[in-house]
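Troubleshooting log. The previous structure file for this entry was overwritten by mistake, so regenerating from the original sequence record. Sequence copied from the archived sheet and checked twice against the printout by T.R.
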Amino acid sequence: MGESRAETPAARGEQRWVEISVEVERDALDDVVGLLGRYCSGGAVVEDVPSDTARRTVIKGFLPVWDEETRQKLEIALLLLSRSAPISEPSVTVLEPENWAESWKAFFPPQHIGEHTVVVPTWHQYDPAPGEVIIHLDPGMAFGTGLHATTRLCLIAVECYLQPGARVLDVGTGSGILSIAAALQGAAAVDAIDVDSVSVHVAADNASLNGVADRVRVSLGTVGGRGRHDVPRHRATGYDLVLANILAEVIIDLAEGLAAAVRPGGLLVGSGIIAEKTDAVAEALEGAGIAILAREQEGDWVALVGRRGD
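Regenerated output below.
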C-alpha cells in the first residue's frame, strides 16, 4: 500500500508537527485514546501524570502541521467530549522538528524491565551487564517505549512465557518493542502487524537496528474486528504466543481473531487494559476459547495471560 512522503521516517524529521494534548481521568481514558489513536500519526501516546487530588493521565496525539482539517475535527470532538466526560480541553502546540526530537529524549531514559530486559534509546551509551537483553529503540512517532505500564507488563510476560523457537504474533506492534524482545529472547519467527503505516515503518526500522530483521516481519494488518476494513486481514494461525498491547475495547472487538491466531495450547497476552475493564476483557477472551491463567497488574493497568484450549 502506498503512502505520502509526510509519513516516511525521513519526512518525519523534516517537517513540523502539531501536538494535541488532553488530560483525562481514568473513566474517559479509552475514549480519548481511541479517538486520537484513530486519527493521529503513530497512534496515541499515554503518559501517567500524578496530581494533588487524583491520578490523571495525559494523552497526546501528533499530526502534520499541514493537516488542518483533521486537527479541527479532533479539536471539536475533544471539546464536545469534555462537556460530558472528565477530560480537559485540548492543548495544541506546534513542534519544530528539533523540539519533537528533544521532547522524546527528555522523557525516554534507559529502562530496566523485568529480570534482564533493558530498553536503551539510540542516543544513549549503555554498557550491558552479563545476561542483560538490550533493546535499542528509536520510538519515532509510534507508541511503545517501555515507559508505560502496559508495555512493561508485556515485556515481563515475554520474559516469563516465551519458549525458545516459538512463533509469535504481535498485534498492534507500535514501535516494535515487543517483537524485538521476543526475537532477542529466542523466538524463531515473529509477525508484527499494525493498522498504522507510520508504526509499520518505525517497527521495521527498529527491528533492523537490533539485528533481528531476519526474524521479525512487519506489515500492515489486523486480525479482524469491526474497525479499519481498509487494512489487510492477517489470517495466519498456529502461533505459540500472541501479544496484543492495545486497548480493552479493541481486545474485546478482536477477541475471536486473536484466539484464532493462537495454536491449541498456545498462549495469549493481552495488555493495555484499565483495571475496571479487566473482567469484560476476560469474559470476551474466555468466550473465544482462551482460558485466563494470570492477571498481572501495575498501577491502574492490567495484562491478562491466557491459554487456548486443545
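The CA atoms of residues 81 and 87 lie 8 Å apart. Archived copy saved in two places this time.
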